[in-house]
Amino acid sequence: MTRKDSIAARFDAARDYDQAARVQRIAAEELARRIARSCAHAAPLRILEIGCGTGFLTLELLRLFPDAHITATDIAPGMLARLAARIPDRERLTPHRMDAEQPDLTGPFDLICSSLAMQWFENRARTLDLLASLLAPGGQMAFATLCAGSFRQWRDAYARAGVTCPVPSYPPLATLHEEWPLSGAGLWQEAEIVDSPASPLEFVRELAAIGASHTDHPPATGSQLRRVLAAAHSNDPFAVSYHIAYGQFRRALWPGVFVTGTDTDVGKTVTAATLVRAWGAAYWKPLQSGTDDAPSDSTTIRALSGIDAARLYPPAATFGASLSPEDAARQAHTRINPADIGLPPHDAARGPLVVEGAGGVFVPIAENYLMIDLMVHLALPVVLVARSQLGTINHTLLSLAALRARGVRVLGVILNGPPEPIGRNAIERHGQVRILAELPPTDPMGPDAVRQLATHIPSWTDVTDSVQ
Question: Which top EC class is given (predicted)?
Answer without folding.
Answer: ligase
